[in-house]
Amino acid sequence: MMQLRPALRRTHTRIAVIAVAVAGILLLTAGWTALRSITQDNMDLMARSLIYNVEAALVFGDKADAADSVARMVRNEGVARATVRDAKGNVFVQWQAPNLWPCDCTAGLVKVLGLHPVEREILSYGAVIGHVELRSNGQRMLAFLLWGLVALVACMGASVVVGHVVSRRMH
Q: Which 3 state secondary structure label does DSSP give 134?
């Protein structure tokens, strides 16, 4: 009978940890999927807004105004690189975020997170006069996943402590 109590206590603890882990992983997966979709939609909306801001500069060949507009719009929006090309495909202006990582791993991170570049045409009176391309840096999604993992580990630790307390009181 004495050996049964520790075995039951370990079993209750394992069940609690597994239940919290499964629930946490499911919530992280659902949150990641929703956040990825929202991030892609946000990049698409930003590309559309950027089109309206650089259209006149592209028509009149004002690279300084276009560069200023691009930098103001995408600086704090999770964009790694924004490129505006003319109708011939030549780079008109390009903005790139400073690399905050000790390595150049932004492209790999974005690929792992499942984010895709957004490219939209710039039209003027129905004619294509250029393209806008935005690439996400994925930092907001990475922050979400890391904080989610921290919360998951904290919940698992709390469930272990509570499981031990409850199993001791039950016996």
A: strand
**pLDDT band at residue 144 using 50, 70 and 90 as cut-offs:** confident
Q: Long-range contacts of range 144-147, CB-CB < 8 Å, 24 or more positions apart? A: 144/31, 144/32, 144/35, 145/28, 145/32
For residues 134 and 117, is the Cβ–Cβ distance under 8 A?
yes
Burial of 138 (0-12, 13-18, 19+ CB in 10 A): buried
* CB-facing half-sphere around the CA of 5: CA atoms within 13 A: 9
Question: Quick count: other Cβ atoms within 10 Å of Cβ 73?
Answer: 19
Query: Residue 93 forms beta bridges with which residues?
Result: 84
Token reading at 80:
């790694």
97 phi and psi angles, rounded to 5 deg: -70, 150
Q: What is the pTM of this model?
A: 0.72
